[in-house]
Amino acid sequence: MRAFGKPTTAPELIESAAPEPGPGQVLVALEAAPINPSDLLLIRGLYGHRPTLPAALGTEGVGRIVAVGPAVDPVRIGERVLIVPTLKHGTWQDQIAIDQDDAIVVDPAADVLHVAMLGVNPLTADLLLRRFVDLPPGAWIGQTGGNSAVGRYVITLAKLAGYRTLNVVRRPEVAAELLELGADAVIVSGPDLGEQSKKALGDERISLLLDATAGEVVADLAPWLVHGGTLVSYGGMSGAPVVIRPGDLIFRDLHVRGFWQKGWLDTAPRAEFAAAYARLAALAAEGALRVPIAAAYPLEKYRDALVHATQADRVGKVLFAW
């Protein structure tokens, strides 16, 4: 990408010589790499990270190590690896040279498309559940964007941990699918959201509220948080501000936090995020971590892929696949 702009027009496909892995690096031949909302924001220049232009695109992916640089054990050649989404390199290309510590070994028999998506969304869901509140068994977790990729991973991981989820969606027709996935309650955003919440929760309250959309829906859910409860904002799909009424903040001592996965990866010890990815990769290999896939495109059809990824009515993730 030479300039920030529309995701469907700003990127371009170029040919260049294959990279050579330097000292401490491995050369990875990509097998699959998803298109995430954060990638689209980065292309527009609206993401928290603005790369120096021209820039290679793509945050995460999976591939095989095909060569190693000096000081790297050649035994690593042939490994299937998850590429840690550090934003130091772009994954929408045939081959990339990366630091060997940014290549996490994953099960070679696992579904390559689902493993390719482990880098961002499942880890985000896992950290949202573990970093902010010490949740007791059976606790309620509320979330906007319940049908998003992160939302679906939250449902699965919460179920495995023994928590319950109250999930807000925009379209009622997705409710049955989320309930089958393991959601305990699905409600539809609208003027009667409070009544739906009351029906789902009864006299119980939400211990943790995860917000992917921002907007007025947050104000409608905030009264259902426990006193001193925590709201974590990690996305703003609606484009609106996060709305919380002063009475909820002041009289009920609610806590508002923000979360950006890159900020965590930049500071976490490698052993910590490697262990987290290993645990999630094992769940993916078992088939426990899965989200709908809309389509997988070859790289040369990148414009079709980006058009598909920007469609508001799209169901499932769009990926590049080699």
Q: Overall mean pLDDT score?
A: 94
- The CATH architecture category of the largest domain equals Alpha-Beta Complex
Continuous helix count: 11
What do we call the CATH topology of the largest domain? Quinone Oxidoreductase, Chain A, domain 1
**Main sheet record:** 7 strands, mixed
How many β strands by DSSP? 13
What top-tier CATH class of the largest domain fits best?
Alpha Beta
Which band does the percent of strand residues land in? 15-25%
Q: CA-to-CA gap between the ends? A: 20 Å
Low-confidence segments, given as residue ranges, are none
Radius of gyration over all CA atoms, rounded: 20 Å
- How much helix is in the residues? 25-40%
- What's the number of structural domains? 2
Structural class: alpha/beta
Tell me the overall shape.
globular
Run of helices and strands: EHEEEEHHEHEHEHEHEHEHHEHE
CATH homologous superfamily annotation of the largest domain: Medium-chain alcohol dehydrogenases, catalytic domain
